[in-house]
Design brief:
The chain has 412 residues and is an all-alpha fold. It folds into two domains: 327 residues, Rhodopsin 7-helix transmembrane proteins (Rhopdopsin 7-helix transmembrane proteins, Up-down Bundle), CATH 1.20.1070.10; 33 residues. The chain contains 16 helices and two strands. A two-stranded antiparallel ribbon has the order 1-2.
């Protein structure tokens, strides 16, 4: 739990550093002196170092989450975890994009080239902008896909458990196709654009096509709003129908569904606060706010991905136990063996054989094996088949008594 609390406090820590730097740059006794420009530039450098630090934390946390999902065969078969893995990969793209952007801008800062201008095509085709353009719509579309998936699971749970990998493929391919299409259109529109823009390569200020970039933000805003609406629809449906079709599920499956409902609610709330609010300000740009406060707004979106990691680790025991098992393996054997056995037993109790969010393949692997073809042929002659071991006892031991004759002696 100390490990989880440490990562939970990281966004607050980085936000505090940012506020201290901005306060010192604005209200320093040197702010009105000729060295004011130097203080403003130092605050710019601090912002870029903040991007780098947050990007490193995002990459470490989401790579850890990906490893917890993909390293375990049972987790890989759960459709819910596959959607979480897709979100983690998107968050990694987003974090790496900001790290590359910060590295580019720090180089310009230390070379005194912040006022340099370059052709638009030079900025549009750097890896940082490609990753940023891919991740921008996906940060809203993938949570929306998760909400749709949970809606299907709540309304038709039996069909959901029988759904094949084709359903999972469609869930993941739809948002990826939209993101790739928008990124490709942006590249085609800017491939021969030689108009001069700032070498800082800011997407909102010309590094991305203004129409396509606003469409990306629009998709993200609408998807986040739709995710919240769908979640409230699910809650109202379950409340009015008193569980609805979930009554057909086992108690363990109901427990998993309730856990997923709470997790989705926390993730949706996190997206509304740290993603939707900054997106609306970036999209509408009231009072030209992006000119002075774009860094804290983007920092809020980066903090959202770190808090998502904390939510998943706290809510899913089967994910955090993988980390705990690796940590326990480093301890002496007299402590490691009982602790690992206890963790494995609790993990088995928390995982249902047929989980609410399991795919069809995982359900089939958990079933008792079907009888072979020869056994079925041997039973095909009769209409009703009985279990002979229950009807006819295999060996009957008759107790010796006066009403029975003694056994005959052996003759040689």
């Amino acid at each position: 739990m100390v490990f989880l609390q440490f990562f939970l406090n990281l966004p607050l820590f980085f936000g505090l550093i940012y506020l201290i730097v901005m306060f010192s740059a604005r209200f320093s006794p040197f702010a009105k002196s000729p060295r004011r420009f130097f203080h403003l530039m130092m605050s710019f450098a601090a912002n870029m170092y903040l991007y780098l630090a947050e990007g490193v934390v995002i990459c470490v946390t989401n790579i850890t989450l990906l490893w917890c999902i993909l390293s375990d065969a049972r987790n890989r078969r759960r459709r819910e975890f596959l959607l979480v893995a897709a979100q983690s990969l998107t968050d990694i793209f987003y974090g790496v994009a900001f790290m590359l952007i910060a590295h580019l801008r720090l180089g310009l800062f230390y070379e005194n080239k912040l006022t340099l201008t370059v052709p638009t095509s030079n900025c549009a085709f750097i890896p940082a902008l490609w990753l940023h353009n891919m991740a921008t719509p996906l940060l809203g579309l993938l949570p929306f896909t998760t909400s749709i998936n949970f809606l299907v699971c709540s309304v038709a749970p039996l069909w959901y458990m029988r759904a094949t990998h084709l359903y999972t493929f469609f869930l993941l391919s739809a948002p990826l196709t939209i993101a790739m299409l928008l990124t490709s259109i942006n590249a085609l529109l800017l491939i021969e654009n030689e108009s001069q823009i700032a070498a800082l390569c800011i997407a909102a200020n010309g590094a991305a096509h203004h129409i396509v970039y606003h469409v990306m933000l629009f998709f993200r805003i609408i998807a986040n709003l739709a995710s919240a609406v769908i979640y409230f629809i699910i809650i109202l449906y379950l409340k009015k129908s008193h569980g609805g079709t979930l009554k057909d599920l086992s108690p363990q499956q109901l427990k998993m569904h309730r856990n997923a409902k709470i997790t989705l609610g926390l993730v949706t709330t996190n997206s509304m606060i740290l993603l939707l609010f900054p997106d609306i300000l970036l999209f509408a740009n009231p009072w030209n706010i992006t000119k002075y406060y774009s860094t804290p707004l983007y920092s809020m979106t980066l903090s959202k991905t770190m808090i998502n990691f904390m939510i998943y680790m706290i809510r899913y025991r089967e994910l955090r136990n993988i980390i705990f098992l690796k940590v326990i393996a480093c301890l002496p054997k007299k402590w490691a063996i009982p602790l690992s056995m206890k963790l494995r037993s609790t993990n088995e109790q928390s995982n249902a054989p047929k989980g609410t969010f399991a795919t069809r393949s995982s359900i089939q692997t958990e079933r008792i094996r079907e009888p072979s073809l020869e056994q079925r042929k041997s039973r095909s002659g009769s209409i009703l088949t009985f279990n002979k071991s229950r009807v006819i006892p295999q060996s009957v031991t008759v107790p010796a008594g006066p009403q029975h004759l003694p056994p005959l002696p052996n003759r040689r």
